[in-house]
Amino acid sequence: MIAVIDTGICNLRSVTKALEAVGASIAVVRTPAEVAAVKATGLVLPGVGALRDCVAALRTTRLDATVRDWIADDRPFLGVCLGMQALFEHSEEGNITGLGVFPGQVVRFRISPELKIPHMGWNTVRFTQPGSPLAAGLAPEGEAFYFVHSFHCVPADQKLVLAECDYGGQFCAAIARGRCFATQFHPEKSQAKGLQIYRNFVTIAANV
Questions:
Q1: Fold (CATH) for 2-206
Q2: Is 72 buried (19+), middle (13-18) or exposed (0-12) by CB count in 10 A?
Q3: Mean pLDDT to the nearest integer, 129-156
Q4: Is-catalytic flag, 149?
């Protein structure tokens, strides 16, 4: 069972359909009590739009504490796009305080004027943690995934970086620590390779 957090601003249908496509049982959750009730082995935090709204929704429902506790217990977690950015201490987008699960910042792209912001479309992701279970079946030297974002994460600890991408310079495209994973790209928009990410996460959650 995979619990998917509904913050009210996330691409919920796309994510749940992708998880179902790889064989997962899904429960959409909106409160800590619902997370506990479904007895999930994996927790997914998707998000699109403004990080301020995502973090505010988590705090209003008290799911911010649920996410922190879940990751602290090393239970399988996957953040997607804003679900990755929310894990850090601070974001330049609206000058907001994140959940503070990991030290680091979320910053706006500072790139050459000829490159458009947001960074939108397909780009090559290179995995930097050999043997990561989230990247099983994917080529470490590069796979194409779909991005839509104007801000990117800068972890204080480089060892947290699971994957990198180049858009006017290298940036962190995914993170991993223990059974906590998060991607800046959208696996649910990334066709077969994206489904492999979700399949791998479901496998991780099934083997807890």
A1: Rossmann fold (3.40.50)
A2: exposed
A3: 95
A4: no
**Side by side, which strands form the sheet with 96-97?**
96-97, 88-91, 102-108, 151-155
Q: In Å, what is the CA distance from 207 to each residue of 38, 130, 139, 143, 204?
A: 17, 20, 23, 26, 5
Residue type, 109: F
Which of the residues 10, 34, 152, 188 is marked catalytic? 188
Chain-centroid distance of CA 93 in Å reads 17
93 is catalytic: no
Confidence of residue 11 (pLDDT cuts 50, 70, 90): confident
- CA torsion sign for 184, 186, 187, 193 is negative
DSSP code, position 38: H
Catalytic member of 119, 149, 152, 186: 186
21-58 confidence digits (pLDDT tens): 999 999 999 999 999 999 999 999 998 888 999 999 99
Note whether 144 and 189 are within 8 A (CB).
Answer: no
To the query of whether residue 188 is one of the catalytic residues in this protein, the response is: yes
Out of 10, 81, 172, 180, pick the active-site residue: 81
Domain ranges in the chain are: 2-206
